[in-house]
Amino acid sequence: MLALEGLHKTFRLGGGWERPALRGVDLVLQEGEFATLIGPNGAGKSTLLNAVAGTFRVDAGTVRLDGQDVTRWPEHRRARLIGRVFQDPLRGTAASLTVEENLAMARARGRRRSLRLAVRGRERRLFAEWLEALGLGLADRLKQPVGLLSGGQRQALALVMAAVTRPRLLLLDEHTAALDPAASRQVLDLTCRLVAEHGLTVLMVTHNMEQALRVGSRTLMMQDGRVVLDLRGDDRRRMGVEGLVERFARVRGQRLVEDRLLLG
Ligand SMILES: Nc1ncnc2c1ncn2[C@@H]1O[C@H](COP(=O)(O)OP(=O)(O)OP(=O)(O)O)[C@@H](O)[C@H]1O
Protein backbone atom coordinates (compact mmCIF):
# COMPACT_ATOMS: atom_id res chain seq x y z
CA MET A 1 0.00 0.00 0.00
CA LEU A 2 2.66 2.45 1.16
CA ALA A 3 6.24 1.67 0.19
CA LEU A 4 9.11 3.96 1.13
CA GLU A 5 12.56 3.22 -0.17
CA GLY A 6 15.80 4.94 0.81
CA LEU A 7 14.21 8.23 1.87
CA HIS A 8 16.69 11.00 2.63
CA LYS A 9 15.96 14.58 3.61
CA THR A 10 18.40 17.20 4.87
CA PHE A 11 17.22 20.68 5.83
CA ARG A 12 19.62 23.42 4.73
CA LEU A 13 19.49 26.24 7.22
CA GLY A 14 21.68 28.90 5.64
CA GLY A 15 25.17 29.83 6.73
CA GLY A 16 26.25 26.36 5.61
CA TRP A 17 24.28 24.65 8.41
CA GLU A 18 22.60 21.40 7.53
CA ARG A 19 20.25 19.20 9.53
CA PRO A 20 19.80 15.66 8.27
CA ALA A 21 16.28 14.60 9.24
CA LEU A 22 15.76 11.40 7.24
CA ARG A 23 18.77 9.15 6.64
CA GLY A 24 17.55 6.27 4.57
CA VAL A 25 14.05 5.22 5.63
CA ASP A 26 12.74 1.96 4.17
CA LEU A 27 9.21 1.04 5.17
CA VAL A 28 6.31 -0.94 3.75
CA LEU A 29 2.78 -0.66 5.16
CA GLN A 30 0.35 -3.28 3.93
CA GLU A 31 -3.27 -2.43 3.15
CA GLY A 32 -5.27 -2.16 6.37
CA GLU A 33 -2.19 -1.99 8.59
CA PHE A 34 -2.29 0.48 11.50
CA ALA A 35 1.25 1.42 12.57
CA THR A 36 2.15 3.64 15.49
CA LEU A 37 5.39 5.63 15.35
CA ILE A 38 7.38 6.76 18.37
CA GLY A 39 10.84 8.21 18.86
CA PRO A 40 12.66 10.94 20.77
CA ASN A 41 12.26 14.63 19.88
CA GLY A 42 13.92 15.40 16.58
CA ALA A 43 14.01 11.72 15.50
CA GLY A 44 12.33 12.61 12.18
CA LYS A 45 8.76 11.42 12.77
CA SER A 46 6.97 14.53 11.49
CA THR A 47 9.49 14.86 8.68
CA LEU A 48 8.64 11.32 7.62
CA LEU A 49 4.91 12.13 7.57
CA ASN A 50 5.65 15.32 5.61
CA ALA A 51 7.75 13.35 3.12
CA VAL A 52 4.85 10.93 2.58
CA ALA A 53 2.29 13.76 2.29
CA GLY A 54 4.50 15.65 -0.17
CA THR A 55 4.99 18.79 1.95
CA PHE A 56 8.48 18.97 0.40
CA ARG A 57 10.53 17.00 -2.08
CA VAL A 58 12.85 14.38 -0.60
CA ASP A 59 16.54 14.52 -1.55
CA ALA A 60 16.64 10.85 -2.47
CA GLY A 61 14.42 7.78 -2.37
CA THR A 62 10.92 6.92 -3.55
CA VAL A 63 7.41 7.11 -2.14
CA ARG A 64 4.90 4.63 -3.59
CA LEU A 65 1.20 4.55 -2.87
CA ASP A 66 -0.83 1.65 -4.23
CA GLY A 67 2.09 0.78 -6.46
CA GLN A 68 2.20 4.28 -8.02
CA ASP A 69 5.38 6.28 -7.72
CA VAL A 70 4.14 9.57 -6.19
CA THR A 71 7.59 10.91 -5.27
CA ARG A 72 7.25 13.82 -7.68
CA TRP A 73 3.57 14.47 -7.08
CA PRO A 74 2.81 17.81 -5.37
CA GLU A 75 1.09 17.77 -1.99
CA HIS A 76 -2.38 18.71 -3.30
CA ARG A 77 -2.34 15.78 -5.73
CA ARG A 78 -1.32 13.32 -3.00
CA ALA A 79 -4.07 14.77 -0.77
CA ARG A 80 -6.63 12.89 -2.88
CA LEU A 81 -5.14 9.66 -1.56
CA ILE A 82 -3.95 10.78 1.86
CA GLY A 83 -5.94 12.07 4.84
CA ARG A 84 -4.11 13.85 7.62
CA VAL A 85 -4.88 15.06 11.14
CA PHE A 86 -2.42 17.28 12.99
CA GLN A 87 -1.76 17.90 16.68
CA ASP A 88 -3.36 21.34 16.51
CA PRO A 89 -7.18 21.02 16.33
CA LEU A 90 -7.25 24.38 14.49
CA ARG A 91 -5.46 22.94 11.46
CA GLY A 92 -7.95 20.33 10.31
CA THR A 93 -11.11 22.43 10.14
CA ALA A 94 -12.17 25.90 8.97
CA ALA A 95 -13.23 27.95 12.03
CA SER A 96 -15.50 30.40 10.22
CA LEU A 97 -17.48 27.69 8.42
CA THR A 98 -20.23 25.70 10.10
CA VAL A 99 -19.87 22.03 11.06
CA GLU A 100 -21.97 20.96 8.03
CA GLU A 101 -20.02 23.21 5.66
CA ASN A 102 -16.79 21.64 6.87
CA LEU A 103 -18.23 18.18 6.26
CA ALA A 104 -19.48 19.22 2.80
CA MET A 105 -15.99 20.49 2.00
CA ALA A 106 -14.48 17.14 3.02
CA ARG A 107 -17.01 15.23 0.93
CA ALA A 108 -16.37 17.42 -2.11
CA ARG A 109 -12.66 16.74 -1.74
CA GLY A 110 -13.29 13.02 -1.59
CA ARG A 111 -15.36 13.16 -4.77
CA ARG A 112 -12.71 15.14 -6.63
CA ARG A 113 -15.24 17.82 -7.53
CA SER A 114 -14.96 21.53 -7.03
CA LEU A 115 -15.87 22.75 -3.55
CA ARG A 116 -19.58 23.09 -3.01
CA LEU A 117 -20.60 24.20 0.43
CA ALA A 118 -24.38 24.48 0.05
CA VAL A 119 -25.81 21.64 2.12
CA ARG A 120 -29.16 20.17 1.06
CA GLY A 121 -31.67 18.22 3.16
CA ARG A 122 -30.54 14.69 2.30
CA GLU A 123 -26.90 15.49 2.88
CA ARG A 124 -27.71 17.26 6.15
CA ARG A 125 -29.53 14.16 7.41
CA LEU A 126 -26.56 12.01 6.45
CA PHE A 127 -24.14 14.31 8.31
CA ALA A 128 -26.43 14.31 11.35
CA GLU A 129 -26.43 10.49 11.28
CA TRP A 130 -22.64 10.33 11.18
CA LEU A 131 -22.27 12.75 14.05
CA GLU A 132 -25.03 11.11 16.08
CA ALA A 133 -23.10 7.85 15.88
CA LEU A 134 -20.04 9.54 17.42
CA GLY A 135 -21.97 10.55 20.50
CA LEU A 136 -19.89 13.68 21.06
CA GLY A 137 -22.76 16.15 21.04
CA LEU A 138 -21.92 17.36 17.53
CA ALA A 139 -25.10 16.25 15.78
CA ASP A 140 -27.12 19.17 17.20
CA ARG A 141 -24.47 21.69 16.18
CA LEU A 142 -24.42 21.24 12.41
CA LYS A 143 -25.24 24.91 11.80
CA GLN A 144 -22.77 26.33 14.31
CA PRO A 145 -19.39 27.72 13.27
CA VAL A 146 -16.61 25.28 14.08
CA GLY A 147 -14.82 28.05 15.98
CA LEU A 148 -17.34 27.56 18.82
CA LEU A 149 -16.46 23.89 19.38
CA SER A 150 -14.12 22.54 22.05
CA GLY A 151 -10.69 21.28 21.02
CA GLY A 152 -11.81 17.66 21.39
CA GLN A 153 -14.98 18.18 19.33
CA ARG A 154 -12.99 19.99 16.68
CA GLN A 155 -10.40 17.22 16.50
CA ALA A 156 -13.19 14.60 16.30
CA LEU A 157 -14.66 16.55 13.39
CA ALA A 158 -11.24 16.78 11.70
CA LEU A 159 -10.92 13.02 12.05
CA VAL A 160 -14.37 12.36 10.58
CA MET A 161 -13.54 14.76 7.72
CA ALA A 162 -10.31 12.89 7.02
CA ALA A 163 -11.98 9.47 7.23
CA VAL A 164 -15.12 10.09 5.15
CA THR A 165 -13.08 10.76 2.04
CA ARG A 166 -11.90 7.12 2.41
CA PRO A 167 -8.24 8.00 2.00
CA ARG A 168 -5.92 5.22 0.91
CA LEU A 169 -3.67 6.29 3.79
CA LEU A 170 -4.39 8.21 6.99
CA LEU A 171 -1.54 10.13 8.66
CA LEU A 172 -2.07 11.08 12.32
CA ASP A 173 0.56 13.40 13.77
CA GLU A 174 0.12 13.31 17.58
CA HIS A 175 -3.52 14.14 16.97
CA THR A 176 -4.58 13.58 20.60
CA ALA A 177 -1.58 15.24 22.28
CA ALA A 178 -3.07 18.73 22.66
CA LEU A 179 -6.33 17.48 24.24
CA ASP A 180 -7.21 16.96 27.89
CA PRO A 181 -7.09 13.30 29.00
CA ALA A 182 -10.85 12.66 28.63
CA ALA A 183 -11.05 14.24 25.15
CA SER A 184 -7.85 12.49 24.16
CA ARG A 185 -9.35 9.10 25.09
CA GLN A 186 -12.57 9.87 23.20
CA VAL A 187 -10.73 10.95 20.06
CA LEU A 188 -8.49 7.87 20.22
CA ASP A 189 -11.55 5.59 20.59
CA LEU A 190 -13.14 7.37 17.66
CA THR A 191 -9.95 6.89 15.65
CA CYS A 192 -10.02 3.13 16.24
CA ARG A 193 -13.71 2.94 15.33
CA LEU A 194 -13.34 4.93 12.11
CA VAL A 195 -10.23 3.01 11.08
CA ALA A 196 -12.02 -0.32 11.62
CA GLU A 197 -15.22 0.82 9.89
CA HIS A 198 -13.45 2.13 6.80
CA GLY A 199 -10.60 -0.44 6.81
CA LEU A 200 -8.03 2.38 6.66
CA THR A 201 -4.26 2.07 6.46
CA VAL A 202 -2.76 4.31 9.15
CA LEU A 203 0.54 5.77 10.30
CA MET A 204 0.13 7.45 13.71
CA VAL A 205 2.80 9.42 15.56
CA THR A 206 2.49 9.35 19.34
CA HIS A 207 4.65 10.02 22.38
CA ASN A 208 2.51 7.75 24.52
CA MET A 209 4.15 4.32 24.94
CA GLU A 210 0.94 2.63 26.04
CA GLN A 211 -0.82 3.90 22.89
CA ALA A 212 2.15 2.94 20.75
CA LEU A 213 1.82 -0.69 21.84
CA ARG A 214 -1.90 -1.13 22.33
CA VAL A 215 -3.35 0.86 19.43
CA GLY A 216 -3.07 -0.57 15.91
CA SER A 217 -1.17 -3.62 14.76
CA ARG A 218 2.45 -2.53 14.50
CA THR A 219 4.88 -0.31 16.43
CA LEU A 220 7.74 1.58 14.78
CA MET A 221 10.47 3.53 16.54
CA MET A 222 12.63 6.17 14.86
CA GLN A 223 15.93 7.61 15.92
CA ASP A 224 18.20 9.98 14.02
CA GLY A 225 16.22 9.77 10.82
CA ARG A 226 16.00 5.99 10.67
CA VAL A 227 13.51 3.32 11.71
CA VAL A 228 15.33 1.44 14.47
CA LEU A 229 12.58 -0.84 15.78
CA ASP A 230 9.68 -2.54 14.00
CA LEU A 231 7.41 -4.64 16.21
CA ARG A 232 4.38 -6.72 15.20
CA GLY A 233 2.70 -10.03 15.90
CA ASP A 234 3.88 -11.99 18.92
CA ASP A 235 6.96 -9.77 19.44
CA ARG A 236 4.67 -6.80 19.83
CA ARG A 237 2.19 -8.60 22.06
CA ARG A 238 5.03 -9.75 24.31
CA MET A 239 6.54 -6.27 24.55
CA GLY A 240 5.33 -4.41 27.63
CA VAL A 241 5.37 -0.67 28.18
CA GLU A 242 8.40 -1.08 30.47
CA GLY A 243 10.33 -2.92 27.77
CA LEU A 244 9.49 -0.25 25.23
CA VAL A 245 10.41 2.56 27.63
CA GLU A 246 13.73 0.81 28.18
CA ARG A 247 14.36 0.55 24.39
CA PHE A 248 13.35 4.19 24.05
CA ALA A 249 15.69 5.30 26.85
CA ARG A 250 18.46 3.32 25.17
CA VAL A 251 18.06 5.05 21.79
CA ARG A 252 17.70 8.42 23.48
CA GLY A 253 20.74 7.76 25.66
CA GLN A 254 22.71 6.86 22.58
CA ARG A 255 21.58 10.13 21.03
CA LEU A 256 22.74 12.08 24.08
CA VAL A 257 26.13 10.35 23.97
CA GLU A 258 26.42 11.12 20.23
CA ASP A 259 25.47 14.76 20.83
CA ARG A 260 28.09 15.00 23.57
CA LEU A 261 30.69 13.50 21.27
CA LEU A 262 29.73 15.99 18.56
CA LEU A 263 29.86 18.90 20.99
CA GLY A 264 33.05 17.64 22.55
N1 LIG B 1 11.42 22.89 8.32
C1 LIG B 1 12.54 22.55 8.94
N2 LIG B 1 13.66 23.30 8.81
C2 LIG B 1 14.80 22.95 9.43
N3 LIG B 1 14.95 21.86 10.20
C3 LIG B 1 13.87 21.09 10.38
C4 LIG B 1 12.61 21.38 9.77
N4 LIG B 1 11.72 20.41 10.12
C5 LIG B 1 12.38 19.56 10.92
N5 LIG B 1 13.68 19.95 11.08
C6 LIG B 1 14.72 19.25 11.84
O1 LIG B 1 14.70 17.89 11.42
C7 LIG B 1 14.88 17.03 12.53
C8 LIG B 1 13.69 16.10 12.66
O2 LIG B 1 12.56 16.87 13.07
P1 LIG B 1 11.10 16.26 13.22
O3 LIG B 1 10.18 17.41 13.50
O4 LIG B 1 10.79 15.42 12.06
O5 LIG B 1 11.27 15.35 14.51
P2 LIG B 1 10.15 14.62 15.37
O6 LIG B 1 10.62 13.22 15.56
O7 LIG B 1 8.81 14.80 14.74
O8 LIG B 1 10.27 15.40 16.74
P3 LIG B 1 9.16 15.82 17.84
O9 LIG B 1 8.82 14.57 18.57
O10 LIG B 1 9.88 16.79 18.68
O11 LIG B 1 7.99 16.41 17.10
C9 LIG B 1 15.08 17.93 13.74
O12 LIG B 1 16.46 18.09 13.93
C10 LIG B 1 14.43 19.22 13.33
O13 LIG B 1 15.02 20.31 13.99
From TrEMBL:
Domain ABC transporter: 2-249
Lineage: superkingdom: Bacteria
Keyword vocabulary terms for this entry: ATP-binding, Nucleotide-binding
Name recorded for this polypeptide: ABC transporter ATP-binding protein
Gene Ontology terms for molecular function: ATP binding; ATP hydrolysis activity; transmembrane transporter activity
A cellular component term, taken from the record's GO annotations: plasma membrane
KW Nucleotide-binding (keyword) present: yes
Species for this entry: Limnochorda pilosa
Keyword ATP-binding: yes
Annotated InterPro entries: AAA+_ATPase, ABC_transporter-like_ATP-bd, ABC_transporter-like_CS, ABC_transpr_LolD-like, P-loop_NTPase
SUPFAM superfamilies recorded: P-loop containing nucleoside triphosphate hydrolases
